[in-house]
């Protein structure tokens, strides 16, 4: 059972991360379009579909399979796991912020400069690297 839960967790995490890495990049390009333009409307559809059809289901699956793994291996007492869980909470918060930004773009609100989304594009990468180090190296 453990191996199958781990496989499902990895597949869902990969799907979620793909979305988290791509969505802010879409926002970089979207922010540079004219509100109401055909290109802007296309970005709205792309962002909505990525968020609703891929990212959110993948995030939920990642959490469910991850918690299942936690129970199977009784990881909640290990320092690396507690640290990983903390980073996943931050990554989930980032997901929620990104969903808020999608809503702002949907309403043609451009509240942030393009460089904000360029910076935001790096946050999931950094968190992913830290999580992978914790899971593989288990430094504590």
Task: Describe how the helices and strands are arranged.
Layout lengths: L1 H30 L6 H36 L5 H28 L7 H7 L2 H15 L3
Helix pairs in contact: 1-2, 1-3, 1-4, 2-3, 3-5
Overview of the molecule:
- With 140 residues, the protein is mainly α.
- 83% of the residues lie in helices and 0% in strands.
- The protein has helices at 2-31, 38-73, 79-106, 114-120, 123-137.
- Helix 2 (38-73) runs antiparallel to helix 3 and helix 3 runs antiparallel to helix 5.
The topology string of helices and strands comes to: HHHHH
- Main sheet summary: none
Distance between the termini: 26 Å
Radius of gyration (CA) equals: 17 Å
Overall tally of domains = 1
Low-confidence stretches: none
Shape: elongated
Please give the number of β-strands. 0
Count up the helices: 5
Helical content class = over 70%
Helix-and-strand structural type: mainly alpha
- What is the strand content? under 5%
Mean pLDDT rating: 97
List keywords for this structure.
single chain, elongated, mainly alpha
Quick summary:
The protein is mainly alpha-helical.
């Amino acid at each position: 059972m453990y191996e199958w839960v781990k496989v499902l967790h990895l597949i869902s995490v990969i799907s979620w991360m793909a979305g988290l890495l791509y969505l802010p990049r879409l926002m970089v390009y979207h922010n540079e379009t004219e509100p109401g333009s055909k290109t802007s409307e296309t970005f709205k559809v792309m962002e909505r579909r990525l968020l609703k059809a891929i990212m959110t289901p993948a995030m939920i699956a990642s959490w469910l399979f991850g918690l299942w793994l936690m129970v199977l291996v009784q990881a909640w007492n290990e320092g690396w796991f507690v640290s990983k869980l903390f980073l996943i909470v931050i990554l989930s918060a980032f997901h929620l912020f990104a969903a808020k930004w999608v809503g702002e773009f949907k309403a043609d609100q451009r509240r942030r400069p393009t460089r904000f989304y360029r910076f935001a594009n790096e946050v999931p990468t950094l968190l992913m690297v830290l999580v992978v180090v914790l899971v593989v190296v288990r430094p504590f």
